[in-house]
Write a structure and sequence with these properties.
- By secondary structure, the protein is α+β, with helices and mostly antiparallel strands.
- It has one domain.
- It is built from two helices and three strands.
- The chain has a three-stranded antiparallel β-sheet with strand order 1-2-3, with no helix packed on it.
Length: about 70
């Protein structure tokens, strides 16, 4: 394959005008504390927990605390 500007011409001379993928960069340094990844993960887990609680209340007809006290 030949690469010219932002398109690729295959061996048979056909134009391949799909986007060329960028090179991947992975930051391998250890990060601790309040960083972007930890905050995103915490927010996503909180959203999953909140939706799970709403689904539980919709399915059982009672709240989580009242369900736990009736066990």
């Amino acid at each position: 394959m030949q690469t010219r500007n932002s398109f690729v011409i295959e061996e048979q001379g056909r134009l391949n005008n799909y986007a060329i993928e960028p090179k991947m960069y992975v930051d391998s340094t250890q990060q601790f504390g309040f960083n972007r990844y930890a905050e995103k993960l915490n927010g996503r887990l909180a959203m999953i927990g909140f939706i799970s609680l709403l689904s539980f209340e919709a399915l059982t007809g009672q709240g989580l605390i009242s369900w736990l006290t009736n066990l």
